[in-house]
Amino acid sequence: MSRPPFLTLPACARAYRLATSRGEFAVHDAVPAGAGGPAPTVLLVPGFTGSKEDFIALLEPLAAAGYRAVAVDGRGQHESGGPREESAYAQDELARDVLAQAQALGGSVHLLGHSMGGLVARAAVLQDAAPFRSLTLMSCGPAAISPPQQARTRMLIDALGELDMEGVWQEMRRMDAEAAPAEPLPNALGAFLYDRWMGTLPEQLIAAGRQLTQEPDRTGELAEVPLPVHVVSGGEDYAWPVPSIDAMAKELSAARTVVDGASHSPNAERPAATAEALVRFWDLA
């Protein structure tokens, strides 16, 4: 679960609901100051248990570099509503949402997906690459997550089938405390993480969790798409082994960035260095 370093939107950004052909989605939209014309647009797709706030620390540096940065809550995530059937969260459905979001933003969008969001972004590009200028896969591997994380995710899926969201939250906190006691979170961050969890639909989490444990390797398919690709990760990653991310990048002939000092969420853990790497890639894409 990504933890944003802060929660207050920068002055360059605003929160609203983006209207698309597939419904409305809650977004944070950061626009460069004094742009003489339309700025190139970046669409930021969060991962499992995540939300648009996972990218909040990237918004200001990306806008300062001349990019319009739009971070979105996917269907059933946090402040975006969704149906109460698991079938609504099949990967193809989520990919169609991303395509609709890109089209609503005018197309020719740089697409970035973090973790599970990377799998969804990949699926969107494989459905239709036309609305995109480039694809960035951040902290995302070629196929299913690592075996230890598969086991943990299956436990979560089972718990979501037996308990309500409050009960699962309390059980996760208990297990985390037993595994690695940590200092208490700041009150505002702790309240946000709780509210985000409670606002996310269990059907979305169950469907996404199953995808993470069953995803096939589609690297070969993606390599056939004529789109610039950037693969970004921290130096360590608990969800996918970094060597597997390296191998995926090589097969894709992708630009590769390893953000020193970061783990699974370089966007939240090392936002300045991450933004610099992203801008370098997009400036050339």
Automatic annotation (TrEMBL):
GO terms for molecular function: hydrolase activity. InterPro entries: AB_hydrolase_1, AB_hydrolase_fold, AB_hydrolase_sf. SUPFAM superfamilies: alpha/beta-Hydrolases (SSF53474). Keywords: Hydrolase. Residues 42-277 form the AB hydrolase-1 domain. Pfam families: Abhydrolase_6 (PF12697). This is Alpha/beta hydrolase. It comes from Streptomyces stramineus.
